[in-house]
Amino acid sequence: MQSNENSVRSGIYHKGEIDLERIIKSVKTHPEISKAGSIHTFTGIVRDNSIKGKPVISMKIDAYDDLANKSIARICETLKQEKGIINVKIIHLKGDFELSEDLVYVVVASAHRKEGFEVISKAVDMYKKEIAVWKREDFSDGTSEWIH
Amino acid sequence: MNVEVLYFAEFKDITSKEKEVFEVTTNMEELLSLLFQKYESLKNLIWDEKTKKIHSLISIIINNQAIHEKDPSFINLKDKDSIAFLLPISGG
User: Could you tell me the CATH number of the domain that includes residue B15?
Assistant: First the structure.
């Protein structure tokens, strides 16, 4: 999805297509990055147990790219309007994942740390409710479940 | 006319496909009939037997736009429509 080495668009990517370092580099190319005093990151990774406590051995993520990309762009634009926020990137990966592998990156550049931490938290709450992405947990007993 | 159905999550597991073209002549009711004939277990996910409509939890998307009507006989289709039935989301 990237247009050049330094430009990363928020949205859905295949696992392995992008890493956190490249997203941070992209955030730093923002024309107003000199106004930022902090860059905050959130990385969602695969946990070894489900919300019901069942042992998880792997995970699959599926996405409706067209819809999810629009929703992610809308969330980023909304959050960029908040006071002191310079740039926001949300990258959600899809594919097959092992335990502890990265699933989601949120990167926020802010003038001061307080608003940066707050917007990271808001971004996570928003993408979990608004983007067309589904996860399937694969359990150690051989069963799987799509989480809704 | 031909319409394309996009499959995500459970729907992809059940059909083993990302998308599929169906030939229909009328509306969503006809498409659902074809879908349920071919993939019986899709009916449990999509169809609400109590209301005789598409289940309220399912989001119907046609050409990337949400459709709020749940009665399939009122959802008209046209050639080359792209249709998806989405279960509640669960981001990582």
Answer: 3.10.20.30
Domain count, chain B: 1
Which residues, in sequence order, are bridge partners of residue A88?
A108
CB of B67 less than 8 A from some CB of A:
no
* Chain B residue nearest residue A94, CA to CA: B92
Model confidence at A2, pLDDT cuts 50, 70, 90, reads very low
Is ipTM over 0.85? yes
Strands (E), B1-92: 2-6, 19-23, 47-48, 53-54, 59-62, 65-67, 82-86
Residue B92 lies in a domain: no
Specify the pTM. Answer: 0.93
Q: Which residues of B touch A69 (CB under 8 A)?
A: none
B21 touches chain A (CB under 8 A): no
Strand partners, A137: A59, A145
pLDDT digits 0-9 by tens, B1-54:
999 999 999 999 999 999 999 999 999 999 999 999 999 999 999 999 999 999
How is A34-50 classified by DSSP, letter by letter? GG-SEEEEEEEE--SB-
By Cβ distance, the residue of A61, A70, A148 closest to B92 is A61
Q: Which residue range(s) make up the domain with B15?
A: 2-86
Contact across the interface for B6 and A64, Cβ inside 8 Å:
yes
